[in-house]
Amino acid sequence: MSFSAQVKNELARIIHENPQVQLSELSAIIRMSGTLKLMGFNKLSFVINTENPAIARKVFTLIKNCFGITVEIQVNRQSNLKRNNTYVLSVTYDQGANDILEKVGIIEKEGEHLSWVSTIPKHLVSRQDGKRAYLRGAFLGSGSVSDPAKMYHLEFSTVNIEISQNLRKLLNSYKLNAKIVTRKNNNVVYIKESEHITDLLNLMGAYNALMHLEDIKIKKQMRNDVNRLVNCETANLNKTVDTSMRQIECINYIMEKQGLDYLPENLHEIAMLRVENPDMSLKELGEIMETPLGKSGVNHRLKKIEMIAEELKEKIEK
């Protein structure tokens, strides 16, 4: 099961005790995934299609709780094993579709005329639990979220730009940095930052999904830290090896051209130890000297040898 399906299954099982909050969630689900049909003058019906049985059961429950209507769920079974069954919930005019659509703020009646409303009903999102329920319904209706192990991306897809803009405004009231992009014929409201996706999961009530995402973030961070440490250690090791090889080349050059006695007596021991122990660090070299010497002291003597080798080279090449 995909991470997106896990989130939806978790959200679909949340039924708030407050009917007004349930109405807010139902409003978002119908707005984001419902299809309205005109059956005659001022006679509407609507249909909700979903491939998720948990969402179908939730819509059934919300409509029954808020309006006392028992909706039939039709299952369209797919012969292709790679495709999921589709669950269809239909509410006809005779069942009270007009009343439902008006109560959830999708249509409004002016005299004998009905008009479509693109804004989010203020009375449904005036409280925090109403706002959170609306976001939950919007995600159940048209949301998706990528596997956090691969990338951080959460989105809502709609065909109407006004719906997208209003949803973005609601999301950004929580400082989630939601943006809109047009993709084919859809307007996509998306969130990319992992911390904002985590915040939204928390707002919607997907706590198990939130913990899963946080666990993946921690593992990613640990892996990045280990890689950074390994890269740093490798870089330091390469630097140490390069320095050691350069020092040995200088010592061998002096020995080949003039012999070890060309060096001051206090540099003889460290010169031989470096040649015999090319992999040792400065600290380790200092520790095995007859009279132990600190790292800075060893470094000073080896730099002195490099300087003598350079001066000898210039002298010979003249």
Main β-sheet, spatial strand arrangement? 1-2-4-3
Number of strands: 10
Total helical elements = 11
Q: What is the overall pLDDT average?
A: 89
By CATH reckoning, the class of the largest domain would read Alpha Beta
What is the CA-CA span between the terminal residues? 77 Å
CATH topology of the largest domain: Endonuclease I-creI
User: What is the overall shape?
Assistant: rod-shaped
Instruction: Report the sheet-strand fraction.
Output: 15-25%
Order of helices and strands: HHEEHEEHEEHEEHEEHHHHH
Which assembly state applies to the chains in this document? single chain
Radius of gyration: 36 Å
Count of discrete domains: 2
**Major beta-sheet overview:** 4 strands, antiparallel
Say which CATH homologous superfamily of the largest domain is assigned: Homing endonucleases
Could you say what the CATH architecture of the largest domain is? Roll
Estimate the helix proportion, in percent: 40-55%
Class of secondary structure makeup: alpha+beta
- Stretches where pLDDT is under 50 for at least 5 consecutive residues are none
Description:
By secondary structure, the chain is of the alpha+beta class. The protein has 11 helices and 10 strands. The strands form 3 sheets. Strands 1-2-4-3 form a 4-stranded antiparallel sheet. A 4-stranded antiparallel sheet has the order 7-8-10-9. It has a two-stranded antiparallel ribbon with strand order 5-6. Helix 2 crosses helix 3 and helix 7 runs antiparallel to helix 8. The protein is rod-shaped and about 110 Å long. The mean pLDDT is 89. Strand 9 and strand 10 form a beta hairpin.
